[in-house]
Amino acid sequence: MSARDWIEKDFYRELGVSSDASADEIKKSYRKLARELHPDANPGDAKAEARFKAVSEAYGVLSDPAKRKQYDEARRLFAGGGGFPGGFGGGGGFDVNDLFGRAAQGTGGGGLGDLLGGLFNRRGGGGTASATRPRRGEDVETDVRIDFTEAVKGATVPLRLSSPAACTKCGGSGAKPGTTPHACATCSGSGLVTRSQGAFAFSEPCRDCRGTGRIIDDPCPECGGDGVSTRTRTLTVRIPSGVDDGQRIRLAGQGEPGRNGGPAGDLFVRVHVNPHSVFGRQGNDLTLTAPMTFPELALGTTLTVPTLDGKVTLKVPAGTASGRVLRARGKGITKRDGTSGDLLITLEVAVPNNLSSEARKALEAYADVTKDHDPRGDLNALLEGR
């Protein structure tokens, strides 16, 4: 992307957020738009695919604190054309790229070249680092949804992605197969040219090769010379046992391809776990609630409950209170390191909605027999002021 393109684009508008939006707001908006515009959700829709690319490009800048700061500074500097003739568009003979070679008046600095040096792989302060040095690819994040049991036991799931990747036709070189790029004669392959203004010399990206240091005479028809194209690929992702809802899994080297021979970025897969109809989770422990009758708790019983891989039987002592938690050791979640949690069973009295006449008579007889027992004695004492 050229300097002019970078400054002219309104990345905040692309994501539908304000310029003072927080990092979480930017991420939330990007995820919503990415889901809506993803090529898989809009097959054959060229407009949606173009918007998907634009949104991804905007997020790539605004999600990086350093790039966002540089972008905001550049927009403030040139807001409304920055007082220069022609504004951003270069009207009246003005080209924003010329500012890479101008000294900042009254500051002794190196102009916009220093301000945006990091984004265009240059060092500020008159540095002459090569624009062709290897650059690491951007990290990519996606989401996957799995069942509760898969999260507990682990699973292998296919993941279909549409993202930038090295062009398969040219192998990432940008040149038509059978041809190779050659070093730019203007900058000798460095990607930078130097201008002298009086006693000062300023470096700027070479216009002939757009700062790449290479000239491609015959661009690849697949990627147009970029060396990168958007393609759909399927990966197999191993979800480890015991993964938590919202946890991210890192796949090294599966992100966007690097530039100039640099390494690829990483792919981060955020896992979303569907809730289970019976089991809950507390760390490595599984939880469930077992409805009980009053006689079972009062007289004691033997209780059999399910686990994720079978069943377990526990003894309920006589006189057990509702709300008591029984523990089945080792029946929880087993992590990759071999540690296991427990199954926690909460006993809860189930009160029937309707009683038969026989059941009502039996309860009334029980209430009459136990009327001398007051379970709310301490509360009643407080109410009576004792």
From TrEMBL:
PANTHER family assigned to the protein according to its UniProt record, in alphabetical order: CHAPERONE PROTEIN DNAJ 1, DNAJ HOMOLOG 1, MITOCHONDRIAL-RELATED
UniProt subcellular location: Cytoplasm
Record-annotated J domain positions: 10-75
Gene: dnaJ_1
Binding residues annotated for Zn(2+) 2, in chain numbering: C184, C187, C206, C209
Organism listed in the record: Lentzea roselyniae
Domain notes: The J domain is necessary and sufficient to stimulate DnaK ATPase activity. Zinc center 1 plays an important role in the autonomous, DnaK-independent chaperone activity of DnaJ. Zinc center 2 is essential for interaction with DnaK and for DnaJ activity.
Keywords, ordered alphabetically: Chaperone, Cytoplasm, DNA replication, Metal-binding, Repeat, Stress response, Zinc, Zinc-finger
Stretches assigned to the CR-type domain: 154-232
UniProt remark on cofactor binding: Binds 2 Zn(2+) ions per monomer.
Main localization (coarse): cytoplasm
UniProt function note: Participates actively in the response to hyperosmotic and heat shock by preventing the aggregation of stress-denatured proteins and by disaggregating proteins, also in an autonomous, DnaK-independent fashion. Unfolded proteins bind initially to DnaJ; upon interaction with the DnaJ-bound protein, DnaK hydrolyzes its bound ATP, resulting in the formation of a stable complex. GrpE releases ADP from DnaK; ATP binding to DnaK triggers the release of the substrate protein, thus completing the reaction cycle.
Protein name: Chaperone protein DnaJ
